[in-house]
Structure formats: C-alpha cells, structure tokens
Amino acid sequence: MTTVIEVRNLTKRYRETVAVADVSFSIEENTIYGLLGRNGAGKTTIMSILTAQNFATSGDVRVFGEHPYENARVLSRVCFVRESQRYPDDANARHALRMASLFFPNWDQAFADRLAVEFALPMKRRIKKLSRGQLSAVGVIIGLASRAEITFFDEPYLGLDAVARQIFYDRLLEDYAEHPRTVILSSHLIDEVANLLERVIVVDGGRIVMDEETDAVRDRAATIVGDTAAVEAFVEGREVIHREALGRVTSATVLGTLTGDDRLALTRAGLEVSPVSLQQLIVRTTQHAAADAQSEGALR
To answer: Domain residues for 124?
Structure first.
C-alpha cells in the first residue's frame, strides 16, 4: 500500500508541557484509522500539525510526501473536521456547504444535499443559532461530501444523538466502499466506532502505546475469571494489565493470544475466559501504561 502520511520523531511542547512526545507512525491510503485515547492525550495536537493548523516543536511530518505548511497542493486534498469548527457569524448552513464546495475538488453536492435531509439540517438558519447537534451535522456533511483523499474527523459527531451518529457511521461506510480514501477518526466512543476501524493508533500522555490492525488487536487480550488461586497460577509469567478481586474470585486481563493448550488448561482449572472489547483493551492498556510511568517516576 501507498503511504500518504509519514510522521517521524514528532514533538510538540507548550512551555513546560509536552503535548506530543517523539512519536513516529505512518498512515496508508484507503484505510479507516482510529486515533484513540483519553482527553488531553495529544490526538487533536497531532491532527492539527498534520493539517498545518499547528506547528511542531521538532520532528518531521510529510503528507503526500510533502510538508503540509502553506502547501496548497497538499491541503486541497485534506479535510479536517473538528468539534470546535468556526464559521462566519452571518453564515448559515447553506453558506458553509457552499464554501466547502469551492475548496474541495472532489465535492459531491448531491451527496451533501441528501445528507442534509437525513440529518434534518435547517439550511437557512444562521450557524450561531444552530444546536450543538445541528452544528455537528454541518461538520459531518462537509467531511463526507468533500470526498477528500485524507479526511480527519476530530470528534465532530459527539453532538449528534444516537440515531444521527448511526446515520453518520452507515453513510461513511457506504461512501467509503464506493469512493475509497483515507479516514482518521478520533473518538471517545470506541465501542461505537470499533466496527468501522481497520487500524488503531492509541495515544496516551503524548506517546503512542498501540499501532496495530484492528483484527489483531481483538485477539490481543482476554479476561480470566475464577478462583483466585487458580487464576493467579494461570497468569503467572504473563503480562497482566488489569486485576480485580472480590472475595475468593479474581478477574485478570492478560495480554497475549490464548493457545489451544491455554484454553484446555483453563477448562481443566474451572476458569472462565471472555474476550476483551476494543474499548476495554484500550482503557486497560492506557491505565497499565500510566501505572508503569508512575512506577518509573517513583524510582527516579
């Protein structure tokens, strides 16, 4: 596959705060990525730098093989939709879509019109009079109808209700199948978007703690539940990223794919095993990484 974004040793500092710490990764064409992590993890900063809306302190960023800053060749092929998108005070939804159509060469007006109907967007109402959900719909429509070669969605759909979010997910997949492009979704609603994602990049504390294909991630961990002594015997020597105990029952989440022999041993020991959802795995992984970082700091 062709690499469309290349990031090497990217660091962003705000005075004493390190928002992004020496991260490196690649983004391939025609793939849906999840850029995931907690609030303040560095996701928005990374996307802002990739779309030339912020500057790196150090490191190298290439989009379509070029630096994106003040580069019309690159930026006309990229769409960045964020929750805090700003529009002129006197603009209405129709104006916002019309302005977008002038910027993006692959713009599909018929698709935009259909989406506006599906999201029940009041086209003549001024932007500043729109509800949060309606404002989110404007951003989502622009992101989808732009058909940009690279589209970033920085949680602009959080203002949508559950029905509208499902419309967004459905239309994204449908249009992606007909018009493949690179999509990077940043979201807190990990389980909701999990089935959309082909690859996940997880950021925690400004660092990348996971960069894998989603199918591989799904088999990366399992939760073992049962008698404490039996659970502890089974997980000995394995990497445990979460542990809970209630009386004589323990639940332990372990990293690593379970083999046939592992599952046989679990059955013989009377232990239950359950898969870990993508959201659970990311939560447990970031908690584990934070605990390790605190331990290292305490030892210094």
So the answer is: 3-215
